[in-house]
Amino acid sequence: MSVTYNFAGKVALITGSSSGIGAATAILFAKSGANVVITGRNAERVSEVAKQCLDVSPDGSKALEVVADVTSDEDLQRLVDTTIKTFGKIDILVNNAGAVAGGAGLSDNNYINGFRQVLKMNLDSCAPNLSAYCMSKSALDMFTKCMAAELGPKGIRVNNVNPGAVKTNLPQAAGLSDEIAQTFYDMYGKLYPVGRYGLAQDIAHAIVFLASDESSFMTGTTLLADGGHLAANVAFNPANLKK
Questions:
Q1: Model-level pTM?
Q2: Residue 75 maps to which CATH number?
Q3: Is 5 a catalytic residue?
Q4: Under a CB-based contact definition with an 8 Å cutoff, are residues 161 and 206 in contact?
């Protein structure tokens, strides 16, 4: 059975929505009638996703394009100001933008710079190895609970989605080749109980559900959409990517 949502008249701002999970989420919101704000650092990809949103919108809802870098305080303020100026409000905020830097470990001379950049992208906007990535995402889990408690009395719900291995361009952005990236996904697909790796649309459906009235009694929740990653205690071994 296909689930449909009605976000007519709502405004959804999705960071990092020029590709991957963010793009799939924006398109699903648009398909459900929402006005969407598409943002990312690549103007061409932002425009491509905005066009896809307009193509699937059932009632001619808008797709606002804002080229911005969420690690820049000035860009973040401009993103919010432009959205408010255009739509007068923000009903739904999806903090999707994220990064994982590749390659370096503690002994690398560039470790600290890479570590700070990942934390800035993953935390300040809402690793040289996976430590910064994991730390920043764990912090977001607790941040979600704190914000849910603080903002609940104002009628604002705050939830979080923890995905498993989802096929996007993140490995390539971290410096991996297409071949190694596919090896990464295939490895997880064989280990996951569901028998496959995730797709951006899988996470988009989880996000849209949490933004809908159907989840109105849920706040401060971390929703697992991981193909059974944690249930099966699937371990990540970077050495497997070098074989």
A1: 0.79
A2: 3.40.50.720
A3: no
A4: yes
Give the chain's domain count: 3
Question: What distance, in Å, lies between the first and last C-alpha atoms of the chain?
Answer: 41
Q: Residue 133 has which token pair?
A: 């990535």
Q: Which of 111, 130, 158 is the last residue of a domain?
A: 158
Instruction: For the beta carbon of residue 61, count every other beta carbon within 10 angstroms.
Output: 23
Distance between CA atoms of residues 113 and 108, nearest Å = 10
pLDDT at 97 over 90: no
Closest C-alpha to 16, from 82, 75, 86 = 75
When pLDDT is cut at 50, 70 and 90, the band that residue 236 belongs to is low
Residues 243 and 174 in one domain: yes
- Closest to 173 measured CA to CA, from 106, 108, 118, 132: 118
Measured between alpha carbons, how far is 243 from 228 in angstroms, rounded to an integer?
A: 25
- Tokens for 114? 């890479």
Q: Quick check: is 1 in a domain?
A: no
Which of the following is catalytic: 5, 133, 192, 197? 133
73 pLDDT exceeds 50?
yes
Burial string for 7-30 (b: 16+ CB within 10 Å, else e) reads beebbbbbbbbbbbbbbbbbbbbb
In a domain, 2, yes or no: no
Q: Could you list the residue range(s) of the whole structural domain that residue 85 is in?
A: 7-96
